[in-house]
Amino acid sequence: MKTFKWLAAVVFFVTVFSFNASARGKDKAQMAYNRGDYQTALTLWNKIISKYERRDKGTKCTVYTKAGMAALKLGKEDEAQQLFEKAIYSASVSPEAFIELEKIYRKINNLSLEIDVLEKYVKKYPDGKEIIPMRDRLFITYVESENWKEAIALWHQLPQKIRDSIPYKTGLLKANAALKNAKASDMLAVGILKKDPKNITALDWLAKKYFWLAENRYQKELAAYYKNRTRSQYAELLQAFKKVTINFKKSLGYFRKLYALQPTSENARYLGNIYARLNVPPKAKYYQNLADKLKKRKK
Fold first, then answer.
1. CATH number of the domain at 11-93, out of 3.40.50.1820, 3.30.710.10, 3.10.20.30, 1.25.40.10?
2. 253 vs 237: CA distance, rounded Å
């Protein structure tokens, strides 16, 4: 019985001593950090981290974020990254760990990891001090990574000031256009061009919209006429061509502006096709030849 009590006392003494030593180590590390001695702070915090990890208790460690901040101050971004990655899954978790980790992932251009940490921050800290810039950045990364549905779902969580800005509206247009949400894309494109007449994304959407409206109707009416060559069918064809011409001319207006900003083979080809439909052979030939030259040059 005496032996058991003696052992219990020893265990208690060792535990208390270890706790006090750990607390002193944390205090010393924090004081070193506060006075700008980041290397000493990092060394002390790393010693504490090693103790936790040797006992497979890394998730209970409370100093990963602090050590990561010290590593950042020393320009040791690789080490900081590793520390913050551990921090967000440990008792050391904090908004700062997510924010700094996002900055690192953005700097090294790792879009998938950046999206992951942004999503985790937005979910974990919906009322966090940095929630607005983190949500804004998440929207941008969704557009860049072509996560179109996610971008649209996040849109209404952005502040009105952000949603009114042309770059963000252009991102939303890209998402809706990719998902073939025609009505939403039409409204966005028209609105964008009122404020930014040289917006390539909006010009491209409307130019192709009116081209294919005209071309599909043109092919449909022509096929109907060849199937039933009557006078009434021919008269119907001529009436349809009047409407088709209006849309081809609308498309032409957008494509001319678009080509001036983006002189690609694709845009030249569209212009050649439009002029062919409008029965302007010289310009049709000019742009078709230009399209071929631009395509060869690209290769």
1. 1.25.40.10
2. 24
* b/e 103-134 (16+ beta carbons within 10 angstroms → b): bbbbeeeeeebbbebbbbbbeebeeeeeeeeb
The whole-angstrom separation of Cα 175 and Cα 179 is: 6
Q: Where are the domains of the chain?
A: 11-93
- What's the confidence (pLDDT) of residue 43? 95
Residues of the chain with confidence (pLDDT) below 70: 1-23, 25, 224-228, 231-238, 299
From CA 232, how far away is CA 151, in angstroms rounded? 50
CA angle 54, 58, 60 (to 5 degrees): 125
Q: Classify residue 181 as exposed, middle or buried by CB count within 10 Å of its CB (0-12, 13-18, 19+).
A: middle
